[in-house]
Amino acid sequence: MNNVIQNPYKDDTQSRESLITNHMDLVKRVALHLKARLSPFMDLNELIQVGMIGLIEAAKSFESHKRY
After folding, report:
1. How far apart are CA 30 and CA 14, in angstroms?
2. How many domains does one find in the chain?
């Protein structure tokens, strides 16, 4: 039997949503940072949307036992 630590956010919707909610401000700050350095025609809401998708995907695949 494999004793690998499971992703605590993979099956626990409430924990995953909490993780995402706690990091939404970071996504917004990064989007604002990028907006200031990219084309003035880049839409801030699109940057935030892409960042949120990335955050959600990261929460799904997060492996707490790995050290980065």
Report:
1. 25
2. 1
